[in-house]
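Quick one before lunch.
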Amino acid sequence: MPIYSHSKLETFEQCPQKYKFKYIDKIKIKEKPIEAFLGSVVHITLDWLYQQVKQKKLPSIDETIIYYITSWEKEYAPEVYITKQGLKTADYFNMGITFILDYYTKHRPFEDNTLETEKKIEISLDKTNEYKLVGIIDRLVYNKENDEIEIHDYKTANTLPTKDKMDNDRQLALYSIAIKEEFGSNNKIKLIWHYLAFNKKLVSERTDEQLEKLKKETIELIKRIESETEFPTNKSILCNWCPFKKICPAWN
Ligand code: SF4
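Model of the iron/sulfur cluster complex:
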């Protein structure tokens, strides 16, 4: 059985044809929407910031912004494209500056007992280990005050989801299954999303019953993917961010 990831499952749900292009035909497209590029540079910067703090070197706000600018320049490529009319590269660059400034100001001195950043995990969905997923946790924290483990995720989207939506979000809930395996099932786990464009934190939790249900649903989804033969297109607004739009039969 191939190993899945949350983004692989999400791609199939969004559009089976996109899934086929990406994971079965393995078509490599260099073009990258600027939103994804901005997200990756912000993630790189926040990862660096917490790595520095771990080494007892608290970077100043200026040093952090310089790191963001340097990473932007280093990673930027002509393949990065703008999806929204009326916006320029500089607008996205400046959005990233604001995200970092706000986050830095709100969370300084970053002493929340971060255990790891960019932590690779493997999630086992069944006892025989047949159905597995892999993932990367942006940041894992042990909150000493509450005796809770926190799974942190950074979001650069420009829409703020409802609490109800996050209470049903799959990605971090799946990640918590792996963390419970690693740290013991009695540990209380908080799921925390940082919506950087709004300088807001959304928090949720899952019961063991909810996680068991999620495992079953995810296995069913994997079975559905494995048995798919048609891979139909699913045209939507999200096609604007699809790297395969140029070769997609729905658009030709
Ligand atoms: S352009 Fe739209 S319909 Fe075509 S593969 Fe991408 S998401 Fe699917």
